Amino acid sequence: MANYVPTQADEEILTCLSERRSFSVVAGAGAGKTTSLVEALRSLIRTDGPRMLRDGQQVVCITYTNRAARVISERLQQNPLFVVSTLHSFLWGEIRHFQKSIRESLRCHILPGHIAKQKEKDNGGKSKAAIEARGKVATLEHALQELDSVPFFRYGDDTPFSDYLLGELGHDDLLLIASDMITTKRALSQVLGQKYPYFFVDEAQDTSPEIVNALNVICSGEGPPIIGYFGDPMQQIYDEGKGDFAGPPGSETVTKVENFRSAPEVVTLLNAFRTDVTQVPAGKNASEIGSVGLILARSETPEEPRRRYSEAQLERATRRLDEAVERWGWAVNTSAKQLFLARRMIARRLGFLSLHDLFTGPYASTRAKNDYESGEHFLLKPLVEIVVPLARADSEGNTGAVLRLLSTKTVAFSAGGQYNKASIGKVKEIAKTVTKTLVGLFYSNKIGDVIRYCYEQDLIHASERLIKHLNRVPRGDVYNEELHSREKADWLADTFFEMRGDEVEKYCTYLDENTPFSTQHGVKGEQYDDVIVVFDDIEAAWTKYSFTKMLTPGVSGEAKDSQKERSRKLAYVCFSRAKRNLRILLFTPDPETAKSELTNHRLFEESQVSILG
Length: 613
Ligand SMILES: Nc1ncnc2c1ncn2[C@@H]1O[C@H](COP(=O)(O)OP(=O)(O)OP(=O)(O)O)[C@@H](O)[C@H]1O
Known about the structure:
Largest sheet: 6 strands, parallel
Number of helices: 28
Bound molecules: adenosine-5'-triphosphate
Distance between the termini: 47 Å
Keywords: ATP-binding, Helicase, Hydrolase, Nucleotide-binding
GO molecular function: 3'-5' DNA helicase activity; ATP binding; DNA binding; hydrolase activity
Low-confidence stretches: none
Pfam families: AAA_19
Helix content: 40-55%
Oligomer: single chain
Strand content: 5-15%
GO biological process, one term: recombinational repair
Number of strands: 16
Protein name: DNA helicase IV
Number of domains: 4
């Protein structure tokens, strides 16, 4: 890396590696954790690489996303010494052949564990939660009984949730099964330790406690295999993470104190949010001049049911943001990244409010909401992955891109698809017709027609769930929360199938990050010169977070512990994306009192805070 500055922490990591001792690197935002990780991996090429290659061993580096895996692999120039992979694909690759053990794990631990959890939620009464829990217990017990009829189990990116009797394992179950197998089957942990003398885990704070435990089991005892965790407990923003990851007994903790990203003004604010690491601005940004500014705007009492803003209120809140931006003199700063927890504001600005309200409204389960936010919802996936990219490539007249999309993303045009025996000329001709029809449908028909065409033409990997919705008669009855809560997905699908595609296209633009807007979760690992963070607890309509309570408990009341922790961490992640200038807009019921509270607690300086009149 140009301008790479070696640090004390890097030295300590090298010492651990040479002494074959496990370690955890704890570092704040912008510390260059990935740089330290890559440097440590590179050092192994020199010190232990030839021996490992001779003995058929490799180093495992686990990343949180596929994108991070690609970045690290590139920085290591695809050196075959390293297996750089997400946790899920690494684990599945290691356990998939042990089908008997997977079944045993499901039977003895995983399913009984899920059943016990659901039973805890059932007090025998008639509440919605109790009824739902009883339903889940029945389904799980049935799956347990019939487990032997499942020929084999599989896991894929397209199976976020388990369907045991179809043999589909979801993301969470995969982690539970793998950690169960590693901790209970000594032979498996020994084999893994022999194949891989070094394990590195990036973003360790988001690794589940079960997995940290399993990896520590592999790496317990003296000498190799050893494990190195790299992470920041303050940036644990996914609930399943362990946060305070630590290596097996006897391992070292290395604290990295530099911040190579942010200007000193931003680093001062970040330090006010935590006590475990006090950062010092380092490298060339230590001499940059940055700034921090907070504007407090009065929040409104929501007028709509479910504590939602009305259209007029949403409009007023958006106008307040424009006023704040104006006051900061950033109206012309088009490169400033705007981070919102308040997604309706983004959806409205970008033109997909009805889609947003559908996928976050009464027909959407928590699972559906999460999948919508990440672009993974099974109803949206065919459009996000195939239809919209095809429509875009087609409108640009980019035939090459159209053919590439068809051959890589669709079933029909893939190597094993129905056209694989046809001549190239014929395939091109079919591709043209299919694309023309599909794009035509997308712009003029309902979404249901588009998806149905994709399914009939074998363009999508249609999941069982999707096929079920396509084949069923639309629900004629009016949705009733009491009666239908377990079947709400039917109403979601029916409403979605009736919609037009234009909103989905805008949603895709947003997912592609081609806009100056992002959700606050979406920016993890990113950095921008200028950042605007908007906190509106009401508009976000989210009970998991409360920024007003976290920042100004005197004005808004004390947050619950979990709410406070989550909000503090998410705020920290957002603020720490700024390299130079950070601006925050906080909607609060009482801006004047909030101002004194914030400055009294020394989170912000008086000169940094102002009130929007
Ligand atoms: N040792 C170093 N010397 C100089 N610059 C560095 C060093 N390490 C990292 N940087 C630079 O600092 C910035 C932040 O690094 P990076 O994104 O790797 O940090 P991080 O710890 O992963 O941050 P976060 O956890 O906040 O996402 C990048 O621009 C990177 O190039």
